[in-house]
Write a structure and sequence with these properties.
Largest sheet: 2 strands, antiparallel
Structural class: mainly alpha
Shape: rod-shaped
Radius of gyration: 48 Å
Order of helices and strands: HHEEEEHHHH
Number of helices: 6
Strand content: 5-15%
Number of strands: 4
Mean pLDDT: 77
Strand order of the largest sheet: 1-2
Helix content: 55-70%
Length: about 180
């Protein structure tokens, strides 16, 4: 039928309209899913010995419009469901975007504050450690002033001996000092 009513072959005024209807019918009835949908929306009328399919609601396949208002009303009346949380008002997309931006800005501000505080705490600890090391260096310089090299070496040896095992420390340091004097 599509060859018979093709506009290039049939010069009739209704050839184009018939050709479009034939192609639409083939597209609907040729696919199992659209065929099942078509079967659900049609009634079989019997008039004598012939059977005629009639659609319940007009569907224009070219513009893809269906009596959507009545269809959506029947859907809402059947389900009576709400996709959100009951009792909370629906928000527009713009409001949701603004909330997301607000949360992102708060997150950035918190990150900046945490990084700044971490830096300040680290800086304070470093300054305290520097002050303690400066005080210890000053004590060492005070003890070293006015003493000769040999006296400073003896003080250092005494500290090492008292801090560790005296017999081992004395033997190893004595050996080191003897090697240095040679």
């Amino acid at each position: 039928m599509s060859k018979e009513y093709h506009p290039d072959k049939n010069k009739s005024s209704k050839a184009q309209e018939n050709f479009v209807r034939i192609v639409e019918a083939y597209n609907i009835l040729g696919k199992p899913t659209s065929r099942a949908q078509y079967d659900q929306t049609s009634d079989i009328e019997t008039s004598g010995y012939t059977y005629v399919y009639k659609s319940r609601a007009h569907y224009d396949w070219r513009t893809n419009t269906h009596n959507s208002q009545s269809n959506s009303q029947s859907y809402n009346s059947k389900t009576n469901s709400y996709y959100g949380v009951k009792g909370i008002k629906k928000l527009s997309n713009a409001a949701i975007i603004m909330i997301c931006f607000g949360i992102a800005i708060i997150g950035v501000i918190l990150q900046v504050v945490v990084i700044k505080e971490s830096y300040l705490i680290h800086r304070k600890r470093t300054q305290e450690k520097s002050i303690k090391l400066a005080e210890e260096l000053e004590k060492v310089r005070d003890t070293a002033r006015g003493k000769t090299r040999d006296m400073q070496t003896q003080i250092l040896l005494d500290k090492i001996v008292t801090a560790s095992n005296p017999s081992v420390a004395t033997a190893s340091l004595g050996q080191t000092l003897a090697n240095e004097k040679k």
